[in-house]
Amino acid sequence: MDTEQNKKPDEADVAGSQATEAGDVQPYRYGGSEPRGKLHCYNWLADIPGGRADSDLVEVQFKNTRKGYYRNSTNLELAVGDIVAVEAQPGHDIGQVTLTGQLVARQMKKANLRPDVEIKRVFRKAKPADLEKFERARARETDTMIQSRKIAESLGLNMKIGDVEYQGDGNKAIFYYISDERVDFRKLIKILAETFKVRIEMKQIGARQEAGRIGGIGPCGRPLCCSSWMTNFVTVATSAARHQDLSLNPQKLAGQCAKLKCCLNFEVDAYVESIKRLPPRDVTLETADGTFYHFKTDIFKREITYSTDKQIPSNLVTISADRVFEVIAMNKAGEKPLSLVPEGRDSGKPKKEFVDLVGQDSVTRFDKAKKKKRKSGKSNQNKQNEGPKVRQPEQGASQNANKPNRNNSDRGPRNQQQGRQAGQNQQRNRQRPRPPKPQSSSNGDK
């Protein structure tokens, strides 16, 4: 039975301190810094009598999405959430039990493990000494990753080390890297082994696994699904986007890993089941008005829009899926209805036109606001410069019209005019005849 020493004082234990003091010990959570809410496989065979006794296999999860399958050879009473010490090469590793019973064998088959693969053992439930050693090893992971990146850069290797995972006993470290080409890291392994004094294992991962280990914020504004609650990766195909009538734009369909978003698979099953209850899209409807072709479909409203032209929308008519089945049956019988819309019914409720009162849907709404402010500012300035209007007498109207404007806005031309006048005055002064010099006194005596 676990004691208070087996616990780690993380946020969950602080929140449940009252229950601990009362004697209700909280279980140890593997990796207190791991994102919570991981969704594991649901054991739908757990309520079958004797289901657990038929299989001694258990599924153990390690850091993030790495899982392993082990044999409970000592018949320990293991339950989902227990922290166990399992066999590793060399030493032992620490992980959390996520699945027990017959369903583990099905999961191994789903993971494409060979039947003759060697299955390692579960040693024991983790002891307090094992957990302390494990936490000391985990504390070295960040510094080890930073130093290893610098070493790889100094060697000129075209690779990116995305994460480092230490084994539970601290004797081995797994370096996860991503690279687009083949990398010769034999020299790198020697330097890392001499630097960190542990056994080195290099493991190449893909872009999805890297995003799940590093984490981040998706375009929806929430943490990435692969780093928060997903435990394995499923192949995503472009057919999922086609079933949901999404635009096949790679920039919109790709996530931070530059691959198709995992969330494309979340609702595709509902779309596929709904499409099965709709008429085929390649069927044309014949009426007395003409031939109608499929234009678009609202899958969940079960409304289909038809057009009289294959290429462009023309004479669009929206009807329900039940009405489409009726028209198809009439066409097979050689009959043509007068119109697609049933008699006595409108083509649909009149749709209210969307009015953008705020202007928030306009891409250039900010530019328009700036232009309006500039125009209003100029007009207000001109009005202030003009001042109050005063009626002038009719006789002096022509004289006032010829006078230059003395507003502040005309100061520039006025200064230029004054400069020209000053230059003209200087030139006139130079051209004027100088007065004769006064005669000397000797000439006057003569």
What is the topological layout?
Blueprint: H1 11-15, H2 17-21, E1 57-61, E2 67-71, E3 83-87, E4 92-100, H3 103-110, E5 120-125, H4 128-139, H5 141-154, E6 160-166, E7 172-178, H6 186-196, E8 199-204, H7 207-214, H8 225-228, H9 239-243, H10 250-253, H11 268-276, E9 285-286, E10 291-298, E11 303-307, E12 317-320, H12 321-332, H13 365-386, H14 397-402, H15 411-431, H16 441-445
Parallel strand pairs: 2-5, 7-8
Antiparallel strand pairs: 1-2, 1-4, 3-4, 3-5, 6-7, 9-10, 10-11, 11-12
Largest sheet: 5 strands, mixed, barrel
Overall outline: flat
| Distinct helical segment count | 16
What amount of the residues lies in strands?
Answer: 15-25%
Uncertain segments: 1-36, 393-410, 441-446
Order of helices and strands: HHEEEEHEHHEEHEHHHHHEEEEHHHHH
Class by helix and strand content?
alpha+beta
**How many angstroms separate the termini?**
148 Å
Kindly report the average pLDDT value: 76
Provide the spatial order of strands within the biggest beta sheet. 1-2-5-3-4
What is the alpha-carbon Rg in Å?
A: 42 Å
Work out the number of β strands. Answer: 12
Residues in helix, % = 25-40%
